[in-house]
Design goal:
The chain has 239 residues and is an alpha/beta fold. The chain has one domain: P-loop containing nucleotide triphosphate hydrolases (Rossmann fold, 3-Layer(aba) Sandwich). Helices cover 34% and strands 27% of the residues. It contains 10 helices and 10 strands. It has a 6-stranded mixed sheet, sandwiched between helices. β4 and β5 form a beta hairpin. The structure holds adenosine-5'-triphosphate and magnesium ion. Magnesium ion (MG) binds next to α1.
């Protein structure tokens, strides 16, 4: 059996001397999607940013496909197979959609054609500049650009934040085709637990930089007590 895509062991990191992550140990097997949940300020972004290599490392380890990447610089982590869509999206506003996608592309199964097939809106907008896109289109571009790096593990930090409900559903459907359809391993941070649990395999809830729940997404979806205790569960959403 191949090594898990990701293993973190007692990972402690933060900003300068301050530790935010209080020792995170988790594992993602190849092809699985992890929903990373928790209220505001619990360390979700800090965890994913630590995997991407842009926080202050304190202790513990990060193995990617069995390779120790703990001390690698951020650009080397991308080359090692970490595809990161940060919370603030960070697309190149003065480049076109197509230039955004080819700027940092690496060879592999994800090509321009395949990303356009996944996101037909991006193909329609391929000559538009990043700053001419709607919020939803910018997010699709951020995901498409991360796929073009042909990562082993895709990190999506609140991909649906601030988007209209119809765009949220469109984007989540595309993410499901990328993960469950195409077998991409991923971590998805999402406020809307009931939206992301059906399209993920496993779930972790953080509180104060520590894991307070770890289990399958199906179990968590059926556990109203835990959902209510640790998450801001959106009201009126059917199960
Ligand atoms: N650049 C930074 N410098 C110092 N402290 C930070 C920085 N970014 C975040 N923090 C602190 O780290 C803690 C965790 O923040 P983080 O952004 O990881 O939370 P989060 O779970 O992603 O929250 P949200 O749901 O609001 O995005 C918070 O206490 C926050 O104030
Ligand atoms: Mg965050």
């Amino acid at each position: 059996m191949s090594a898990p895509v990701l293993v973190t062991e007692k990972l402690v990191a933060g900003y300068g001397e301050a530790s935010v992550l209080a020792g995170i140990s988790l594992k993602i097997e190849e092809g699985r999607t992890l929903a990373l949940l928790g209220r505001n300020g619990t360390g979700k972004t800090t965890f994913v940013n630590t995997l991407a290599g842009v926080t202050t490392y304190h202790s513990g380890s990060i193995l990617l496909m069995g390779r120790d990447v703990t001390k690698l610089r951020a650009d080397r982590r991308a080359a090692a197979g970490i595809g990161w869509v940060p919370q603030e999206r960070n697309i190149f506003k003065s480049l076109t959609v197509e230039e955004n996608m080819t700027a940092i592309a690496r060879p592999g199964v994800w090509t321009l054609e395949r990303v356009y097939a996944m996101f037909p809106r991006l193909k329609e907008r391929r000559k538009n500049l990043g700053n001419q896109l709607s919020g939803g289109e910018q997010q699709m571009l951020a995901v498409g650009r991360a796929l073009m790096v042909n990562p082993k593990l895709l990190l999506l930090d609140e991909p649906t934040e601030g988007l209209a409900p119809i765009i949220v559903d469109e984007l989540l459907a595309a993410i499901q085709r990328i993960t469950q359809g195409e077998g991409m391993s991923a971590i998805i941070i999402e406020q809307k637990a009931r939206k992301v649990l059906p399209l993920s395999d496993d779930a972790v809830i953080l509180d104060r930089g520590a894991i307070v729940y770890q289990g399958t997404s199906a179990d968590l979806l059926a556990n109203d007590d835990i959902l209510g205790k640790h998450l801001t569960v959106e009201k009126g959403t059917p199960h």
